[in-house]
Amino acid sequence: MIPVRKFDAIVVGAGGSGMRAALELARANLKVAVLSKVFPTRSHTVAAQGGIAAPLANSGEDNWHWHMYDTVKGSDYLGDQDAIEYMCRRAVEVVVELEHMGMPFDRLESGRIYQRPFGGHTQNYGSPKMAMRSCAAADRTGHAMLHTLYQQNVRSNTQFFIEWMALDLIRDPQDGAVVGVTALEMETGELMIFQAKTVLLATGGAGRIFWATTNAFINTGDGLGMAARAGLPLEDMEFWQFHPTGVAGAGVLITEGVRGEGGYLLNKNGERFMERYAPNAKDLASRDVVSRAMTTEIKEGRGCGEHADHVLLKLDHLGPEVINLRLPGIREIAIKFANADPVRDPIPVVPTVHYQMGGIPANYMGQVVIPEGNSKEAILPGMYAVGECACVSVHGANRLGTNSLLDLVVFGKSSGEQMLKDMATMPRPHRNLPKDAGEATRSRMARLDNAKSGERVADVLNDLRRAMQAHCGVFRFPEDLIAGVSKIKAIAERAARTFIQDKSKVFNTARVEAMELENLVETAMATIVSAEARKESRGAQARADHPDRDDKNWMKHTLWYKEGNRLDYKPVHLKPLTVETMEPKVRTY
Ligand SMILES: Cc1cc2nc3c(=O)[nH]c(=O)nc-3n(C[C@H](O)[C@H](O)[C@H](O)COP(=O)(O)OP(=O)(O)OC[C@H]3O[C@@H](n4cnc5c(N)ncnc54)[C@H](O)[C@@H]3O)c2cc1C
To answer: Disulfide: which of 26, 239, 383, 536 matches 554 by Cβ 3.0-4.6 Å?
Structure first.
């Protein structure tokens, strides 16, 4: 028997989204367990640099309507407009709350929160004038936010299970409700069932399916794998954001805040090429637009360096005072990873995989919604998803910078509120666990433990990441996508035959990596199958054979199912909560 522990709520993930949700629950005196593969303040939110969006209007006019317009346009009209309105309307509230919790934002002379411009955020419904909307703590905003949320959770008695890896969801066979998760304690190698009335997945992104990424080693799409194995669909997985400025050769992020502060991109001729691609917003156009422009410059032979394989980010004209005050972390990263001190030298940069717009389908209260009967969005009892692993969908086909940290706290809070409401209507005792609870996990572990030979995890993983990079990049070609689907299918078969030499139990990282690989495979398969099927270009999906957006046929969300590797679609929510629909237009910056 796998031992069982009972809680009111389980939160899988201690990043910004999981901790904001847990705080809401713990403050209501519920018994909350937060599971994390790493110490909470090492979650990937810690790496967020540039800021969190909120129309505080501290340095110029701004309001939530403009923010909503920019987000809908940024999403290339695939974002759900009810959810986008909800997020933009609550932005000021959640940022002020963070400030009151003690988050150390930078300050203006007036004492108000410092704000900087960011790509795609404009004034007055897309005018050439940029909005100052990104609230920043130097270039370490995620670090400041994560520590603040952790401290508040400790104060509210949230129970953390650190270095525990959740493995599978447990569903009630009667109605499919989620009643718990199985998890592995890395220190001992033992399995445990965490039973709960509500389960929230907040497992973050999965950028490790690509070769070059700004994402940490722990971003392996575990929540996506858990959902897919439990029979749930994954939404809009074809849309992956390439951040324009990863350090060439290293992938480490250089925040868009650099361009917000006045930095700009140059090609080998010293030309400020973004003026040609986005005459108004220039270097602060939306990320998909800038990444494509950079890739085109490099492809057409105007790249820099010995191999003409990158462009340059110039910021020395900002002067050492601004660089040291507003971008100290960037200076350190550039010196360490590019051997370039930005006070004097430009930084070599290339577009790098950064963020997944897709994920587990959820509404703006964090409830997971799936097709059932006549509904495309039936609420799945007991299950919630939030943060980068969820698809709400506020980012649609392309996310604007600083809207993710906002999404974490808005939907972290709303999902906590919804879980409280739902639990108030549930019977006091927990539902019974199904008889075979944990069996699926046990058999996956047993296969790995009993395998005497097979594929090395690292080999399969490297092949997967290389294949995704080559077949599903900034520009997508039909024959590459078709070949990519076959390659990922073959890799998935190899992943089912992995073997680990070390069978020991205590801190066996080989076992953890093997389990992570299974999640990466589900994520990659969902991505490439969805990308191959979508015959249009929209946001982050740029197809050479279908260069235009096709609203008539493709204004819809993709749903990918593991079973049968099949696809379904559902409509985009074009109706906001209180304002008029923002009608699709040609997207220019
Ligand atoms: C370098 C970088 C800079 C960025 N800068 C910005 C920015 O300035 N502004 C902005 O808005 N966005 C930014 N982003 C995006 C943003 O930081 C992320 O989208 C966001 O932090 C993700 O938060 P999360 O709560 O969803 O997940 P994460 O912070 O990634 O946390 C995931 C959590 O899940 C846990 N977990 C995962 N799998 C399991 C499992 N199986 N069992 C148990 N626990 C598990 C992990 O341990 C971790 O605690 C940036 C991203 C990167 C990579």
So the answer is: 536
Its pTM stands at: 0.95
For 200-236, the three-class secondary structure string (H helix, E strand, C coil) is EECCCCCHHHCCCECCCCCCCCHHHHHHHHCCCCEEC
* CA of 546 relative to ligand 1 center, distance in Å: 32
pLDDT per residue over 436-484, tens digit each? 999 999 999 999 999 999 999 999 999 999 999 889 998 999 999 999 9
* CA 584 to centroid of ligand 1, rounded, Å: 30
Distance 500 CA to ligand 1 centre (A): 28
What residues flank ligand 1, with Cβ below 6 Å?
A: 12-18, 35-38, 43-45, 47-52, 141-142, 164-166, 202-205, 214-215, 218, 222, 253, 255, 354-355, 387-389, 401-405, 408
Residue with tokens 């032979």: 301
Other CB atoms within a 10 A radius of the CB of residue 332 amount to: 12
Average pLDDT (216-245) is 97
How many angstroms separate the CA atoms of 377 and 372, rounded?
Answer: 7
Q: Is residue 369 within 8 Å of 415, Cβ to Cβ?
A: no
DSSP secondary structure of 172-201: -TTT--EEEEEEEETTTTEEEEEEEEEEEE
Cα gap 147→571, rounded to integer Å: 38
User: Residue 286's pLDDT is what?
Assistant: 87
Question: Tens of pLDDT along 330-346?
Answer: 999 999 999 999 999 99
Please give the number of the atom of ligand 1 that sits closest to the Cα of 36. Answer: 44
The residue behind tokens 């989620």 is 178
561 touches 526 (CB < 8 A): no
pLDDT at 249 over 90: no
- Alpha carbon distance 165, 184 (integer Å): 5
282-334 per-position pLDDT tens digit: 999 988 899 999 999 998 999 999 989 999 999 999 999 999 999 999 999 99
Model confidence at 272: pLDDT above 90: yes
How is residue 432 annotated by DSSP?
Answer: P
CA 454, CA 415: separation in Å to the nearest integer? 42
From the CA of 519, give the closest atom in ligand 1: 41
